[in-house]
Design goal:
Largest sheet: 7 strands, mixed
Radius of gyration: 22 Å
Strand order of the largest sheet: 3-2-1-4-5-7-6
Distance between the termini: 38 Å
Structural class: alpha/beta
Strand content: 25-35%
């Protein structure tokens, strides 16, 4: 089912407030998701962009041609669907400003929990003449691309971060400002004598893969699987610059729903456990099932989870042996052997 923000995005056209882009126009749709209905007079060509693999796959399944990154320029209109990440939203607006022609309309929509009101105020403070329309528990916000678009894009574009002097990150990625506490705990328990092939499921910007290579110098290879395209690109750069000689593949992948053919001696992971704003143990359980699928007989899983998440039953069902390595006030490190 389409989320309300997607309906909010197209409401200005449905209500007749904005004219839909017509034949011969080119529209850039950043953060595109499946489930929308175009107005009859919306006949422009649309370039769909979605960097999150599950949403990308859903959109592709509806017959759309989608890319994980925007390309091209001289677009005459831009649509932006907000996510819950402020950095990602501002990056999309900066991208739209740089890829549209002067006088183009840039239309943004988001739910209250996406911070759409704060985003509208920020755009106004940057000198953009924003109009807005509330609908479906959110807002549609739009403005005409000004002549000084590059200056505003520069102010909005996320500034890459540097963690521990060596990990590059960017706003909008998971734990972009500091190492996640769960990953840090797991890193302290990684093996120091491992010499086989490993997989990092939900690799993010590459922290655990790098830390495994740090801990086990004889590591043969590590493959990273990550659904966030931008984070995966950062992971490739981080691992490649810190351990340039290590064999590795970076896979843009929906671990919970897409098969993995390769087999590994070790799987490490700090699986996501949120879908939307609520905790969803089923997502982490899907990661555990995928780990069991790709481990060789005798292979091991090392994972970290919030203390309250009930993963032990799933481990017991899928593995010969399992247990807990350690815990602190927030997290627990679990192990299992196939």
């Amino acid at each position: 089912m389409a989320r309300d923000a997607l309906k909010t995005l197209f409401h200005p056209f449905d209500s007749g407030t904005l004219d839909a882009p017509g034949e011969g126009n080119r529209v850039l749709f950043l953060g595109a998701e499946a489930g929308f209905r175009l107005p009859e007079d919306f006949t422009a060509e649309i370039a769909f962009v979605q960097a999150f693999r599950p949403l990308f796959n859903h959109l592709v399944s509806t017959g759309k041609t989608v890319k994980p990154e925007a390309d091209g320029e001289d677009y005459g209109f831009a649509l932006i669907l907000c996510s819950k990440h402020r950095g990602a939203n501002e990056a999309r607006i900066a991208e739209a400003l740089r890829r549209t022609v002067p006088g183009s309309t840039i239309l943004i929509a988001g739910a209250k929990e996406d911070g759409i009101e704060a985003l509208r105020k920020r755009l106004s403070k940057l000198g953009l003449d924003c109009e807005h329309m509330p609908k479906y528990h959110g807002q549609a916000v739009w403005f005409v691309r000004p002549i000084n678009a590059e200056a505003i894009a520069t102010a909005l574009a996320p500034v890459p971060g540097l963690i521990d002097g060596r990990f590059r990150t960017a706003p909008g990625m998971f734990s972009h400002a500091e190492v996640d506490g769960g990953s840090e705990l797991l890193a302290s328990r990684l093996p120091t004598d491992f010499d086989g092939s490993a997989a990092d499921l939900g690799a993010g910007w590459g922290y655990l893969s790098v830390m495994l290579a740090d801990a086990s110098p004889r590591l043969k290879s590590v493959d990273m699987y990550e659904a966030d395209f931008a984070a995966l690109e950062m992971a490739k750069d981080n691992l490649g610059s810190i351990h340039p000689g290590l064999a590795s593949h970076a896979n843009w992948h929906d671990v919970a729903h897409e098969d993995i053919k390769a087999k590994y001696d070790l799987v490490i992971m700090n699986p996501p456990f949120h879908e939307g704003h609520a905790a969803e143990p089923g997502l982490g359980q899907a990661f555990i099932r995928r780990a069991a699928d790709i481990l060789k007989i005798g292979g091991s899983l090392l994972m970290v989870a919030n203390r309250g998440l009930p993963y032990e039953t799933t481990l017991a069902t899928l593995f010969k042996h399992h247990g807990e390595t350690c815990r602190n006030a927030r997290f627990k490190v679990l192990w299992a052997r196939k």
